[in-house]
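During the reporting period the student researcher (J.K.) took over the structure-prediction task from the postdoctoral fellow and processed the backlog of single-chain submissions. One of the processed entries is reproduced below for the supervisory committee.
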Amino acid sequence: MNGFEKRANLIKEKIKKTTLGLLRTSDPKRIRVADISKQANVSQVTIYNYFGSKEALLREVIKDYLDKGTADFEEVMKKGLSLREKIEYIIFLEKEIYKELPLGVLKELISEDQELTAYIEEQYNQKAIPLTIQMIQEGKESGEISDHISIENVLVFIQLYMNQYETLLDMAQKSGDMDKFLEGMVHMFFYGVCGKS
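J.K. obtained the following structure tokens:
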């Protein structure tokens, strides 16, 4: 990579970082290219030259953000942790992501961008599901998941949690002790309401 390409990449990263920062505090519809250019200290023309449109910039920012989450998940899978430790770490990552970028913002961007929706579905099917199945298989092999429970059973159970994830995180925030609330949810995930058996 030559000096020009390095500088271009640095400018693009600065623009994307600025945009992500604005998404944390502003409604995506209210963010203007002028706001991004001012905070990133670049011209609007530079933003349009690199990204083409505000929508394309937002799409790239969200893709990068989600790719980082997937890479973090892949790293967790390589660490040799127990199933419980993996789940706890994943919940910790999700909690941090929720603090950084509210799920409502993600939902809004996804609902208005078919290309982003298709990308997320592709990543989910090609990366998230296989990694989750790998985690479940490892949990079964280590005896952390009962032989009586199929991979499909666990996937359905995880999907039930994920369908209510935003609600669970809101409830965790309102509980006054988010960590304790989430620890309780992890305990129920592994042991049900009756505790360890």
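The committee noted the following: The first helix runs from residue 3 to 25.
J.K. will present the remaining backlog at the next meeting.
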